Structure formats: C-alpha cells, structure tokens
Amino acid sequence: MSLIHSVFRRKSSLAYQCKLIGLLMFFLSMTKIYAQTGNTFDLSECYKTEIEYRLHPGEKDQSAVEIIFFMARPSFKIPEYSLSVVEINSKFYIRARILEKNLWEELSQAKEKKQQLSPVQTPVYSRSISSSFKDSLLNTFRKSILSYKKKKKPEGVICWFDGTVFEFNVFLGNTLDHIKIDDDLKDNDYEKKSIILLDQIINDLKDGSFDESKYKFRF
Fold it and tell me: Helices then strands (H, E): number in the chain?
C-alpha cells in the first residue's frame, strides 16, 4: 500500500520518566472516561496525545539524540506514519513507524459509538544508516523547511484543507526548526518531492528493500 506522502534531545532520564508518568496518567484517565462517561472525551486532545505516543514516543536509550522527525497525518482511511533519524553512540539509525489503521478515524468511531478504542498496532521498522545518508536526509529536511516558509501564507489567511498534514522537524541543539504543511502542494514544490522520497524510503523499510544507494536526493 502506497503512503501519499516535539521535541528536543532526550538525554535526561528525569525528562523521560516524566513523559512516561504523563502518558500513564493519560491512559488511566482515558480508561476512566471510557468506563464512566460514555466517551465524552475531547477528540482533538485525545488524538494529539495518542498520535504523539504512537509515532513519536521518544527513545529508551538515554544516550540517543534525535536529529530529524517527519510525520504524516491523513484525514481518513490511510494510516498515519512517521520517520525519524537518531544518533546513538556515534551511530545513526533510521526508523519508520506506521499505524495499521487510521487513528483519527478509529477514535472518531469509538466516540460516536461510545465504545473503547479498538487496538491499533504500530509496527516499527529500523535500520542503521551511514553518516553520509544521514547528512543527505538532514539537508533535504532543511531545504524543505526553508522552501515552505518562503511561500507560507500570512497569518490570518484561512485555507480549507482536508488532506494529509505533514510535519518536518530538524533538531538543532536546544532549538527546533519546524513546519506543518496543511495546504495543497504543487508537483514542482521541493517539499512535495521530498515527501515522495520519504514515502519511498518508508515503504522500503516496511518491505525490507531499503538500500541507501537507490535514493536520489537531487531534485
């Protein structure tokens, strides 16, 4: 199946533990909501927390440093997915996470039917990569962010959009360079070409055909 198409370094064990505690508290509260209030939960807030937990959960290894993170959130049908690159002990790893179902759709149905959320698995596909491949991906992310920021519509301009929302994140020390693409892209836009490339990489990681030499970063 083709896929069309926060947040700083996680070195502090205390920060990681706090995040785990926060997630645990969330799930306990969600269990209470499902059991006692007929699913009268805030759909948007629930989705935000669930998607973060599933597609951007952080690293268990406290030596890990996140370099880039990409996420796609289709409105319906197509499952959400993400791609990240991390450095662990001077080695680089690329990871794709792909939900088996569209989480927004599953949560919407659970709320509408006043039922518990059905299990949604999140397979993870990981490979080690070279420093040069990491640099190529990092450069592509930076160019995509710069390209989109140049033509981003002014604040206050409302655009109706019912497609896939994409996020590009580059972690720079204690700062974050970020864009959220929530409008239509033209075929010649650098960001769209980047998304198509990332889509290919993610699918190849999923089916076991990932090979650094096959990806062309010049477009």
Answer: 5, 6
Q: How far apart are CA 186 and CA 146, in angstroms?
A: 16
> How far apart (Å, rounded) are the C-alpha atoms in residues 213 and 210?
9
H or E segment and range at residue 139? helix 131-151
pLDDT at 175 over 50: yes
- What is the distance between the alpha carbons of residues 33 and 42, in angstroms, rounded to a whole number? 10
Q: What is the pTM of this model?
A: 0.77
Q: Outline where DSSP puts E strands in the chain.
A: 65-73, 81-88, 91-98, 124-129, 165-172, 175-181
Q: Which helix (H) or strand (E) holds 107?
A: helix 103-113
Helical (H) or strand (E) element with 1: none
Residue 112 token pair: 């509408």
